[in-house]
Amino acid sequence: MTFKALLATKAGKTVSTEVVDFDEADLMPGEVCIAVDYSTVNYKDALALSGRSEVIRVSPLIPGIDLAGTVEASSHPGIAVGDKVVVNGWGLSQTHHGGYAQKARVKGDWVIKIPAAFSTRDAMAIGTAGYTAMLSVLALEHGGISPETGDVLVTGANGGVGSIAISVLSKLGYRVIASTGRPTEGDYLRELGAADVIDRRTLSEPGSPIAKERWAAAVDSIGSHTLVNVLAQTKYRGVVTACGMAQGVDLTGSVLPFILRNVTLAGIDSVNAPADVRALAWSRLARDLDLSKLRRTSALAALAEVPSIAARILQGQVQGRIVVDVNA
Fold first, then answer.
1. CA–CA dist 147, 30 (Å, integer)
2. Which of 10, 121, 203, 248 could cysteine-pair with 59, CB 3.0–4.6 Å?
3. How confident is the model at residue 317 (pLDDT cuts 50, 70, 90)?
4. φ and ψ at 289, to 5 degrees?
């Protein structure tokens, strides 16, 4: 039995893709078989398909770090035929076939039931980016940040993590400052809940090791000089989450924000987070994410469009989230 899949073949640093008829017998081992409805395109997916980062480690491989669909077969306790489920991260698109296909077979421990508030399309409008944004919000709360503490900065505001973070934080009552390289899209960010919009160029160049206090907390998906400057301008006992590297993986900053202002830098890992943390994040998304805002941040694409979308993401030309209908 065959199904449609986007297959990636890697030769050195070059990745080529083709939509093929894939044999179900060639899927990798796992206790849960899923009829996939939707996937999505994240920054990590774009890196994988470009060959710019060593994401894909097995070739050929079906990429896509996200998928949502309906369970067709399961031998895993607690996961039953007919369940609507989501899988984010783990080995998908690295060592295990991922979400850019009409079917998937995965380990049962990787599978999370989708909250009743969401459809499978909603789950992929959220995807790894939105789930990561929620993990960041949880880390801010764990660090003692509340709406009364002060402003929260969100960098990369037009991207997937940024869009969902703004939507969630604003609904929770936080005053959000959005940092973006596309200030002309300020109206979009204000619709999501941003109270103020600043140009990312004010943060993206090398700056002072410590600077005037501006925000109580931040959600950063950019890294490099941006993250250093964010830390330098965070208020006393503030919390900054780091979940991305769009500008770079370097962090050539200073210890001064940590030892003079007691700032906390919280790393966010969405790939290998344990099941209980994932379930909490998805339950909080069901409670704290405005579905009308979610649907404003997402657009639909077909499987064959994924490579061109990935290229646009790396060029900073994509707003919000792209949901992939694998059956289109």
1. 43
2. 10
3. confident
4. -105, 125
